[in-house]
Amino acid sequence: MANNFEFDYLCDVKSKPKICIGLSGGVDSSVAALLLKEQGYDVFAMFMQNWNDASTTLHGDCEWEEERFVAEMVARKLEIPFYFVDLSKEYKKRVVDYMFDEYSRGRTPNPDVLCNREIKFDAFLSVARKMGADMVATGHYCRKIQAAGPKGEPLTDANGNPLWSILEGSDPNKDQSYFLCQLTQEQLSAAVFPIGDLPKPEVRRLAKEADLPSADKKDSQGICFVGKVDLPTFLQQQLRSVEGDVVEMLPAYYESSELFKTQQSLLSRRADAGAVSADGGACPWSDEELFLLAEPLSYADVVLEKEYYRSGKKHIKRERYRENGLWKHAGRHEGAQFFTQGQRKGLAIGGHKDPLFVVGTDVARNMVFVGEGENSPGLYRSCLRIAPDEIHWIRPDLALRPGGQMRAALRIRYRQPLQAATLYMREAGLYIVFDEPQRSITPGQFAAWYVKVGDGVQEYEMLGSGVIEK
Questions:
Q1: What angle do CA 383, 388, 393 make, to 5 degrees?
Q2: pLDDT score recorded for residue 4
């Protein structure tokens, strides 16, 4: 049965564009292809191989070979041309190498965001265009519309080209706009998101109704177009394991930390000024104070010391780590670069009432710092900074200039509920101050900012993003 669904940004095109669908073998891209075909577009499918090192791929339900097989069956079912492209060299160069470099420096990158920016809407798009495609479609749960002005008038850039907006997907449980937070206007102009207005159950229903081979496939949990890769194993095969110390930070440490106390004092200044206004109000901090607010605790002052003691009837000389009431030795690990802020699994340290969480790492000294319980002070921060060269505006017409500020809703990881915050643009970078402390602000991840659009319905447009530096 045909679906009465049309893409607003293609309605005015006199001759329907030729569209290449990135067919992954999953149900989402399969239904995207189905909708394009039913609406009469000239569509062909292409499967991309991004990784070919079998030593880091777990053989199971989600190998890329199986995904390719399912994708080809879907294309045959839909009677659309199917092609295969090997982008593994580009993927290694532009995504994997960057990912390893970030992890080796104690940062946590997001390969899926990079894959969309560097591969799907760049290298893959380039190949698709050489094969005659005008646009590339994917199975992302997000929406693309032409940006509108205050009176609803369509907006264009200086050259008369449409300005595009990315909205969250209609299904709040599946919104994937975050993964597209680094796309440019040029990339967006060639992007099509056929299922962005559909809830996941409806996508499943359409797939079953059309008897698509991917209708009952589980959602992939692997890295973008790579397959089911076990990330810890992947990293350990590429980065050298070096045993080091795990240090538990005690509550008294934060009570004695000058930086921690200064940050709490600065944040109380905002509370003293009353509730945050709709436009953020005047910035209550100087540039130097914003820098201090965004500074993470480094635990650089933590030094483990050993002491000797006698035990047993024979008074055998033994050694142990000296406790000082601020921190204590908690265990050993196999490499600080394998741990990330907020991590709970993989520590293998017992003897505590509440679970331990990673509150920091020091790759140079190969140390991992942990705190007990979900309320450990080291887990939470209220401010982060994005370096000037890492700030990306999807809507360049709305970009802040130094000295500017705006209220926004922030997401610092996929599927996190949007968090209220104020953005302050300064020469030293973009500072984001949250209304409420945020757990596990992780350097290397992307922060994406949104604003509410329209009246009545709670819809959000993603305006930009950047790599969290601190």
A1: 90
A2: 43
Catalytic residue list contains 115: yes
Distances (CA, A) of 456 to 115, 420, 452, 453: 35, 19, 10, 9
Closest CA to 378 of 243, 245, 259: 259
Overall fold of domain 270-296+379-467: Elongation Factor Tu (Ef-tu); domain 3 (2.40.30)
3-state secondary structure (DSSP) of residue 434: strand
* Residue 49 neighbours by CB under 8 Å, 6+ apart: 64, 68, 84, 85, 86, 87, 88, 225
Question: Which pTM does this prediction carry?
Answer: 0.90
**pLDDT tens string 85-96:** 999 999 999 998
> Is 62 marked active-site?
no
Q: Does domain 8-238 have CATH number 3.40.50.620?
A: yes
Distance of CA 293 to the CA centre of its chain: 23
Which residue among the candidates 20, 62, 181, 224 is catalytic per the annotation? 224
Pick the catalytic residue from 115, 142, 181, 383: 115
The string of DSSP codes covering 263-311 is: HHHHHHHHHHT-SPPTT--S--S-HHHHHHHHPPP--TT----EEEEEE
Q: How confident is the model at residue 456 (pLDDT cuts 50, 70, 90)?
A: low
Token digits of residue 233? 């194993």
User: What is the SS3 assignment for 4?
Assistant: coil
Looking at residue 162, what DSSP letter applies?
Answer: B
Whose tokens are 């600065």? That residue is 266
Domain boundaries, the chain: 8-238, 244-257+298-375, 270-296+379-467
